[in-house]
């Protein structure tokens, strides 16, 4: 710990006393996520082990009331078939619903109920702007912004203005890039990630600014969706796997660090 | 003689000034005092001491009874249904036994292999989670360090506690997505929770 503090001090020392004063733009980036709505499908190992556990559990268990009732029903039916005399008690019970009837009735009710599909329409037509795609995955909002002369896919970002905290900057960016029709929850006041890049040489000399330092803030989408706005040319809700293709490399590497749920194999 | 019994004598000055000594507007030398306004005292009712004693006893018994009642209640604990075995169940224990299944060696081996694969799987998962936590911490600490270099004020604003998160509630992912515009069927609400006095 001490050494870390020492190193920070040393770094500050060098920065303050360096001969050429370099200026950096301070920016806030917004990592807006739609959290998974449904669970991930179980892996083969999980399914296999789950079945085995259920088997063992069943073997160790005692018979339930329902099973006893069913056995009783079976015995009575056999007696009836054999034409044996039945006492009135049994007669009375025979008119009642049997255990098997009860199971059948419940099964029918279950079959009649239609569960919503785990695959949605947005998945089949691959609508990357829809929030209803990939329900079991984490979606991240990325926008196509013009940086310099070219369009890049990035997390929504914007310049910090004097007088506001970085959290306020990222809230303003949210309003600017997504409109007012959106409700999110920020994960605290602290940035979750950092990335800096240098501007092209021409711009560096023109404005005397070295580059940009971006501080990323994480937020979770509660409801609402992105409105069409002017700060970007395109937007997408993409999974982390898709981010790999969209974002350029050194940027992606830094973003990936604070995206917690990428898979083991990505 | 007056000199001998000085206490009995009336000072001539007193006699002279007697008309002006009055303490109130009433007749001279007539003092109205507080007891004169009081009502004559009521005669105290005398109760039979036996009745008194009986009354006190009754009171004490009543209190003792309520104490006993409270003590009795405090000793009986709320039954925990999940822990207590129903008496009828222990009688039926024999009829509820399942036939013992003897598995072949292959089956047992299969189970052992699956258990081993499972523990490997959980091990990998655990280390992966540790890695993710590590990455998150590293990324945030790096951002905070850089921010402190940029501006101490911004850094202090960033490490400030966000109290709105204290009331944050999360609901986990579910098996199937919610059905849109679903009208849940009507039913009666029956409160089956037990009451304990």
TrEMBL record, chain A:
Family: Belongs to the mitochondrion-specific ribosomal protein mL46 family.
Source species taxonomy: Eukaryota, Metazoa, Ecdysozoa, Arthropoda, Hexapoda
Record domain Nudix hydrolase: where: 116-260
GO cellular component: mitochondrial inner membrane; mitochondrial large ribosomal subunit
Organism: Acyrthosiphon pisum
Highest taxon in the source lineage: Eukaryota
Protein location: Mitochondrion
Record-linked PROSITE patterns: NUDIX
Matches recorded under InterPro entries: NUDIX_hydrolase-like_dom_sf, NUDIX_hydrolase_dom, Ribosomal_mL46, Ribosomal_mL46_N, Ribosomal_mL46_NUDIX
Keyword Ribosomal protein on entry: yes
Name of the molecule in the record: Large ribosomal subunit protein mL46
Principal subcellular localisation of the protein: mitochondrion
Pfam families named among the record's database cross-references: MRP-L46, NUDIX
CDD domains: NUDIX_MRP_L46 (cd04661)
Keywords: Mitochondrion, Ribonucleoprotein, Ribosomal protein, Transit peptide
One GO molecular-function entry: structural constituent of ribosome
UniProtKB/TrEMBL annotation, chain B:
Keyword S-adenosyl-L-methionine: no
Name of the protein in question: Large ribosomal subunit protein mL40
Cited InterPro entries: Ribosomal_mL40 (IPR019192), Ribosomal_mL40_metazoa/plant (IPR039145)
Classification via PANTHER family: 39S RIBOSOMAL PROTEIN L40, MITOCHONDRIAL, LARGE RIBOSOMAL SUBUNIT PROTEIN ML40
GO CC annotation, single: mitochondrial large ribosomal subunit
Pfam families, sorted: MRP-L28 (PF09812)
This protein's UniProt keywords: Mitochondrion, Ribonucleoprotein, Ribosomal protein, Transit peptide
Subcellular location(s) per record: Mitochondrion
Organism: Acyrthosiphon pisum (Pea aphid)
Similarity annotation: Belongs to the mitochondrion-specific ribosomal protein mL40 family.
